[in-house]
Fold this protein.
Amino acid sequence: MLVVDDESSLADLLSLALRYEGWDIRAEGDGAGALRCARQWRPDAVLLDVMLPDMDGLAVLARLRRELPDVPVLFLTAKDSVEDRIAGLTAGGDDYVTKPFSLEEVVARLRGLLRRAGAAAAKSASVLTVGDLTLDEDSREVRRGEDDIRLTATEFELLRYLMRNPRRVLSKTQILDRVWSYDFGGQANVVELYISYLRRKIDAGREPMIHTRRGAGYLIKAAG
Amino acid sequence: MLVVDDESSLADLLSLALRYEGWDIRAEGDGAGALRCARQWRPDAVLLDVMLPDMDGLAVLARLRRELPDVPVLFLTAKDSVEDRIAGLTAGGDDYVTKPFSLEEVVARLRGLLRRAGAAAAKSASVLTVGDLTLDEDSREVRRGEDDIRLTATEFELLRYLMRNPRRVLSKTQILDRVWSYDFGGQANVVELYISYLRRKIDAGREPMIHTRRGAGYLIKAAG
DNA sequence: GGGGATTCTCAGGGGATTCACAGAAAGGGG
DNA sequence: CCCCTTTCTGTGAATCCCCTGAGAATCCCC
């Protein structure tokens, strides 16, 4: 996975997060470097900032396509920038996220891209299961046993993150960094709040699946 | 599928979108290359820009027909160009779309061409069904249960996109990218507006099939 | 060219969602 | 068993997202 962004702090953040997902990452700070790396290293996907110091992101894309016509590209773009121009280009199967983004979002989009790129091979599970709890990333349906559970957007993202890491303690900081936007400036106790919301919907009147590890964080695991 | 267009960004866009549909794609930038590719590679269909740098699209067509008399051709043409001349040419079973087009439209036309050409590739029936809702891509007829439903062009495209992805949440961005033209620069809330139109026609007084996932997008699924 | 259909913008309103704050509850160490 | 720390949760305000009516612009067919 090739990360192209001239803001090194952001590039580092992304590199770390994606490495944590088990992917092999390289980072480049400008278009020329990106093209060189793409040519030599042949990444499976590219994260491309559309604002680069040396050349337009779209120019980079064009030249990238000449080298690697099939590699999926995830654009990183400022909220109110040239969204219309991006929209056209991404329609072909690429995708984009607007800054500021959450890492969960980036990872989810990347998985989607890879799944689609490897269309035939990977038959896309897209359903996470922990005990009798299931979460479908496509339909965004969540159920525990027989019961449908309606979640808000943030609750869904949080639960997805937990279920991606079953039986593993996730600290509040980790959660905040992954589920909320990287420039979130609020109180850390939103995590507690949303854990509480989730418990009400998922664990209510049942054996609990979400557990607190005092001083460490939270984890989810099958009941019993 | 052979894509012939001298505008490389557009050719890339099309290649990606069609690859996503599971087709095998090659792109050429001029008439000479197109003919060479057609001769050697024998595509099942050709997307042909009528404005090419080296030769008239019509001349390309003529020579293409000598090589591959049966391959269907989808013309790409500017809005206010020589539409009448195209119209004459397409009488033979070919078809055309005017720029700017939406990807949904191109894909739909291509499927139509392949189906009519009797190519093995397109086994797909032309009728989409979700619950008691059916949409015929050929006749453009839509019915819910016993009731005929009259849709406008945009409503039809939107519903088709939804029905091709039943039980799957589609974001407003995704919808905008697929259903509207690639250079659409307007407000994102047209999607909301057209969803609202569709609901009035499809869900009116019945169990709703179109659902909103707040903060995520829309999906269609069988009622109940 | 005329008239109806269609597409799209704008803006208001309503309800859902997000989040801060603060007090209550629970855990843990001495 | 007490006290301090951490976590939980009720309340309410601000915000965001979505829906829809009205009307302007445009398209298309006759």
Observations:
- Residues 100 and 183 of chain A are 7 Å apart (CA to CA).
- The radius of gyration of chain A is 19 Å.
